[in-house]
Amino acid sequence: MTAAADRPLPEGKLDPDLLAELLRALPPPDASVVVGPAVGEDAAVVRVGTELVALTTDPITFVSDDAAAWLVQVNANDIAAMGARPRYLTVTALFPTGATAAAVRDSFRRLAAHCQRLGIALVGGHTEITRAVTQPVLVGQMAGVTDRQRLRRSRDARPGDRILLAGAAGREGSAILARHRAAELAALFPAEVLADVARWAEPPGLSVVDAALALAEIDGVHALHDATEGGVAGAVREMALASGAGCRLVLERIPVRPETWAICGALGLNWLGLISSGLLVAAVAPDAVALCLAALAPLGLPAADAGEILPAGCLLEHGGVDAPLPEFAVDEIVKGIGESVNGLDIGNVQRARRDGELRLQDERSEI
Questions:
Q1: Which pTM does this prediction carry?
Q2: What is the CATH class of 29-146?
Q3: pLDDT, tens digit (0-9, with 9 covering 90-100), for 97-135
Q4: Which residues contact 213 (CB under 8 A, 6 or more apart)?
Q5: What architecture is the 154-362 domain classified under in CATH?
């Protein structure tokens, strides 16, 4: 075993290269598997009779307050990003020793309410009190149905496609930070601003289900991908690499709220790598862009043509100049909630507020 193999892994998603190595070692799936395990794909898809069934699993580990809302939304997003309608959910619910019956009842009440809102049936699972966790941990397994016409995969982006973003970058991470770092951020932000940002995670604030299902109806939409850990930069890179291609993301076109700029500036974080459930990435034929934006408009989400799929190389354009698209070994949220910041940078907050407001004032109606 090499020294590298002995080194502790960082918190967050596995390194894509390590994950790819593990997936390559799996035995080949049978003919019923339409979309198998692959880096960058949001869910598996299997054929059951005449239907295509999308299957995914996701845990909630960064938050404990109303983890049920996060769980239902992020699992449903994965299913919808495949062009499938979310239908069924099972949940493994692990509670720490000392958890009360009232807390467990509240968690189940919230799960039922959030599933009902999206028309999802909570059909089973497992519950346990265990010393293996120090806060409630919910793990969801969701299934949905689609057909060949609506099926979308991350790996089907093509050079020349435009990159459409629906939603706001860093929305989920901002909500987490507004909750976990509220005491420190309160010195720089009005209480009502932090409270509003914390509510961004409340349903349907992190959902891309309606957006994904709307885009899956359009022939010129080649690929969809749900942005989660790794942020907008990670999601666009994953789609490009899954497709054997590259990408150019234009910084000035990325939908992002000024509050996200300001909070990340205060904490010394880069919002490009901040966990971004609630942001959908689409690779779209140039002649379908207008149709896609029109389909998204009634949903009230910010949406923008923010770049293009290239034959190779991942780039970030800023001020008309290309540079390598930043890579994040771990999501910025890990630094944001896992490390103590010695003093918030007021100058960063002021610059972020000013830059964000100037950049977005012409796009205010979209965002």
A1: 0.89
A2: alpha beta
A3: 999 999 999 999 999 999 999 999 999 999 999 999 999
A4: 80, 83, 85
A5: Alpha-Beta Complex (3.90)
